[in-house]
Amino acid sequence: MAMYESFARVYDTFMDNVPYEEWSLYIRRLLAEEGIRDGLVLELGCGTGSMTELLARAGYDMIGVDNSEDMLEIAQEKRVESGADILYLLQDMREFELYGTVRAVVSVCDSMNYITEEEDLLQVFRLVNNYLDPGGIFLFDLNTVYKYQELLGDNTFAENREECSFIWENTYFEEEGINEYDLTLFLKEEESRYRKYEETHYQRAYELNRIEELLDRAGMKLEAVYEAFTRNVPGPESERVYFVAREQGK
Fold first, then answer.
1. Under CATH, which number does the domain 147-204 receive?
2. Which of 165, 170, 168, 156 is nearest to 196 (CA)?
3. Which of 14, 41, 74, 175 has its CA 20 to 30 A from that of 87?
4. 187 in the Ramachandran plot: left (φ > 0), alpha (ψ -120 to 50) or beta?
5. What is the rounded CA–CA span in Å between residue 49 and residue 72?
């Protein structure tokens, strides 16, 4: 089963503990520090559009790209409800195409970890560089090696809600740096009946210095790396980090 088909239906339910408003404020501050307070911004891996909507509300002209039709259907429903002028594109970020350049590209919620091959990640970075305005900014986050090794890998998480529940089993393959998520969902179909769905997801853990090398090969300059939601240098137990990179030539 393709990723984010069944899970798309309940994604926002299980993500209701994510402080999107605070994440949005952090992203907007980082962009503002680079002189980007408005204009055209692309979000890669936009999912159900929660962050896209917040950035649009803050005054950015948003484009959202995702390769899950089911997730984008929910994003489009949100757009209808909010009236936001957002362009959503059903595209794989390894092959995305735009009609022109943008002031910034953002990617959050560890979307980049889903790119499990280095050459594919390099291709994403090259495309981002190609579609950035001169001096434009690429802002993205990654889960760290530490998070996969110590917090996620080989652990099982479960959550039960009135309308749905999930079991999330993790297996971390140290040599490959790949974390496998085996997700079992139970979605309420009728008053007392639930249907079982299963999905498997894969993410890769990247060393921070390798990301800098790939950005450099793609033609971008790494401006900063922060422990998530701070201005601190990442430490050995940082779980999520943010990268700020700048276009410096095609």
1. 2.20.25.110
2. 165
3. 14
4. beta
5. 7
Say yes or no: do domains 7-143+206-247 and 147-204 share a fold. Answer: no
CA distance 227 to 209: 14
Third-level CATH fold of 7-143+206-247: Rossmann fold (3.40.50)
The domain ranges of the chain are 7-143+206-247, 147-204
Please report which confidence band the pLDDT of residue 6 belongs to, taking 50, 70 and 90 as the band edges.
Answer: low
**Do 46 and 66 touch, CB atoms closer than 8 A?**
yes
**d(Cα 150, Cα 182) in Å, to the nearest integer?**
18
From the DSSP assignment, how many helices (H) and strands (E) are in the chain? Answer: 7, 11
Kindly list the distances between the CA atom of residue 188 and the CA atoms of 1, 5, 70, 164, 197, in Å, as whole numbers in the listed order: 19, 16, 18, 6, 11
- Report the distance separating Cα 210 and Cα 98, nearest Å: 27
pLDDT tens for 119-176 read 999 999 999 999 999 999 999 999 999 999 999 999 999 988 878 888 999 999 999 9
Per-residue CA distances from 175 to 43, 68, 141, 179, 206 (Å): 31, 29, 23, 11, 12
For the chain, where are the alpha helices, taking DSSP H only? 11-14, 20-33, 50-57, 69-82, 118-131, 145-146, 208-217
Contact at 8 Å (CB) between 200 and 182? Answer: yes
Q: Please report the pLDDT score of residue 1 as a whole number.
A: 34
